[in-house]
Design a protein that fits this description.
Blueprint lengths: L8 E4 L9 H10 L5 E6 L11 H7 L7 E6 L7 H6 L4 E4 L7 H10 L3 E6 L17 E5 L14 H17 L6 E5 L7 H6 L4 E4 L1 H4 L4 H17 L4
Parallel strand pairs: 1-8, 2-3, 3-4, 4-5, 5-6, 6-7, 7-8
This protein binds D-xylitol-5-phosphate and zinc ion.
Length: about 240
């Protein structure tokens, strides 16, 4: 049974925003109904692309009160964490195989006052979370290989999402803290209901939102579909 007591959150990914007008894009997308700002950090080492770092995070911070959700696609991980915390990040997630000591990295994020989480690539097994459940505020499942926006959703992620949902629900029903379940990659209006039905509560979408002229229209359409994913036959 799917518990839908969790809030749902839409987290537009700035990767597909206009980099020449980032502050304005952040304000517009939050006005359009975004809950979080998803901030993709790529280092041309862990992934073959290069994006934005703590200075850009600091620059957009005054433009919104919405939580900034920093997705680190960098290796190594630890040195950059205090810099992002100082730059105003609220949530920091990283890929466990990119850190020499994932348990220590999770603690480091929390010591710096941010929510912490692990990111799972399509081929990364979920058991990386098993022994750090008490340190997780969020689990992020990649539904594309990391590095680029505009890729196609990998359908096998739906089954993995349901597995992650079960792990999290088991943990919470045994008295554990809440853990958000976020999905990232290829999320669109036409697949978000199935993604919701599989158990996600937080939805990253880059090209689907920033690729359209009316952000509000897309975000509202996504929310209608999410509701269908909760009430439809698969729920
Ligand atoms: C990919 C990034 C994603 C990306 C999603 O490595 O982590 O956040 O921006 O973009 P779309 O929604 O276009 O697949
Ligand atoms: Zn991301």
């Amino acid at each position: 049974m799917m518990p839908f007591s969790q809030p749902t959150r839409i987290a537009p990914s700035l990767l597909s925003a206009d980099f020449a007008r980032l502050g304005e894009e952040v304000r517009n997308v939050v006005d359009a109904g975004a809950d979080w700002i998803h901030f993709d950090v790529m280092d041309n080492h862990y992934v073959p692309n290069l994006t934005i770092g703590p200075m850009v995070c600091e620059a957009i911070r005054p433009h919104t009160d919405a939580p900034i959700d920093v997705h680190l696609m960098v290796e190594p991980v630890d040195a950059i964490i205090p810099q992002f915390a100082k730059a105003g990040a609220n949530i920091i997630t990283f890929h466990p195989e990119a850190s020499r000591h994932p348990d220590r990295t999770l603690s480091l994020i929390k010591e710096h006052g941010c929510k912490a989480g692990l990111v799972f690539n399509p081929a990364t097994p979920l058991n990386w979370m098993d022994h750090v459940m008490d340190k997780l505020d969020i689990v992020l499942l990649m539904s594309v290989n990391p590095g680029f926006g505009g890729q196609r959703f990998i359908p096998g992620t739906l089954g993995k999402l349901a597995q992650a949902r079960r792990k999290i629900d088991t943990w919470i029903s045994a008295g554990g803290q809440p853990i958000a379940l976020e999905i990232d990659g290829g999320v669109k209006v036409d697949n978000i209901a199935a993604i919701r039905a599989a158990g996600a509560d937080t939805f990253v979408a880059g090209s689907a939102i920033f690729g359209q002229p009316d952000y509000k229209e897309v975000i509202q359409a996504m929310r209608r579909q999410i509701f269908k994913g909760e009430t439809g036959p698969s729920a």
